[in-house]
């Protein structure tokens, strides 16, 4: 097998995940969003709650595909580790720059340190180094340690409610006013991409690494078994430790990671084996660029006061026909459609932005 073999199924699945991110992040009106397109208020798991875990799972898969062959060929560890660290730092810095842009143009009261790209960068660094320096058995042991250890930490911490859980308490202590939610009067804070809950996100990415090794070695039955086993174990564990995206609980890791492995197996069969078109590929090969570009687009529209007039003038006529929820969804679909045209043209011209 080629050291750098590329799977169209992985690009397509990554791309569909990014398109889904843009869809749920850019409704016409946050007051009128269909339930499945919103995150769970706290415990539970909606379709929207699957999007970020799927992306991190695919990050792990991509690490396996990018480095697995080189590791098996005996490539030296240090240059690969430097590549991982440098790319992770670029992703984190990009996330912080985007937050600075939002803080400046949208007049946010405080600058937020954590974020989606920051979490992706941390997970990429951790799992990339695990792929380079740990063999398969050690990776499994690390995954089990993270899952059990983090579950134990949450349980030992007492409450699993939004106010009072140990992850939010520690994030409030470490991040303070630089978290997404912060009450200076009480010292209570919370961030859905906080530092403590990143332990769960690391587990998701590590699970993707294991799945990616199965894919590159054509061990598809193992991949399906991994998906079914993790999803079932996640649902069982949820009876004691609820599914929770903001805490990124261990049961949530297994449930979403299991579904991710099954989605990967299905995409591989349909696209790589059967020859279905890789819908979403253009988003997938420019994933970070599409996410960052869409973020800047939204911030600029909001920051310069153009978003509401655009929504009212271009989509106001839809409300009598489909209602306010349908109108809001139409805007989100149009937003994704515009970016689909952009990334398709970039792909046609073979322009790929790498972070």
UniProtKB/TrEMBL annotation:
Q: Which Pfam families match?
A: HGSNAT_cat
Instruction: Note the superkingdom of the native organism.
Output: Bacteria
In its UniProt entry, what is this protein called?
Heparan-alpha-glucosaminide N-acetyltransferase domain-containing protein
What are the leading ranks of the lineage? Bacteria, Pseudomonadati, Pseudomonadota, Betaproteobacteria, Burkholderiales
The transmembrane residues are: 12-30, 50-67, 88-105, 117-134, 141-160, 195-215, 220-240, 252-271, 283-305, 325-343
Where the record annotates domain Heparan-alpha-glucosaminide N-acetyltransferase catalytic, the positions are 6-154
Q: Which UniProt keywords apply?
A: Membrane, Transmembrane, Transmembrane helix
Keyword ATP-binding (UniProt) = no
């Amino acid at each position: 097998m080629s050291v750098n073999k590329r799977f169209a199924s992985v690009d397509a699945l990554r791309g569909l995940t990014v398109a889904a991110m843009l869809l749920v992040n850019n409704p016409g009106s946050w007051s009128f969003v269909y339930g499945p397109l919103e995150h769970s208020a706290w415990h539970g798991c909606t379709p929207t709650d699957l999007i970020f875990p799927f992306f991190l799972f695919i990050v792990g898969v991509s690490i396996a595909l990018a480095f697995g062959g080189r590791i098996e060929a005996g490539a030296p560890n240090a240059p690969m580790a430097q590549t991982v660290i440098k790319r992770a730092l670029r992703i984190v810095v990009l996330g912080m720059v985007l937050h600075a842009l939002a803080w400046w143009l949208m007049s946010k009261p405080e600058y937020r340190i954590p974020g989606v790209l920051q979490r992706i960068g941390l997970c990429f660094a951790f799992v990339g180094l695990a792929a380079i320096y740990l063999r398969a058995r050690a990776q499994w042991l690390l995954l089990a340690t993270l899952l059990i250890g983090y579950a134990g930490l949450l349980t030992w911490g007492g409450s699993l409610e939004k106010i009072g859980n140990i992850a939010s308490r520690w994030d409030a202590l470490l991040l303070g006013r630089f978290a997404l939610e912060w009450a200076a009067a009480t010292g209570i804070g919370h961030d859905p991409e906080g530092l403590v809950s990143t332990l769960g996100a690391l587990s998701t990415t590590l699970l993707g690494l294991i799945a990616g090794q199965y894919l590159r070695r054509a061990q598809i039955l193992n991949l399906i078994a991994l998906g079914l086993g993790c999803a079932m174990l996640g649902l069982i564990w949820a009876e004691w430790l609820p599914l929770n995206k903001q805490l990124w609980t261990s049961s949530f890791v297994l449930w979403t990671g299991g579904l991710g492995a099954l989605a990967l197996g299905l995409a591989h069969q349909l696209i790589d084996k059967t020859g279905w078109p890789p819908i979403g590929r253009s988003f997938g090969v420019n994933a970070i660029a599409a996410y960052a570009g869409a973020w800047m687009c939204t911030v600029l529209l909001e920051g310069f006061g153009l978003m509401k007039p655009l929504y009212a003038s271009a989509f106001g006529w839809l409300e009598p026909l489909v209602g306010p929820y349908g109108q809001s969804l139409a805007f989100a679909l149009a937003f994704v459609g515009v970016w689909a045209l952009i990334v398709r043209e970039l792909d046609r011209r073979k322009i790929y932005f790498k972070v």
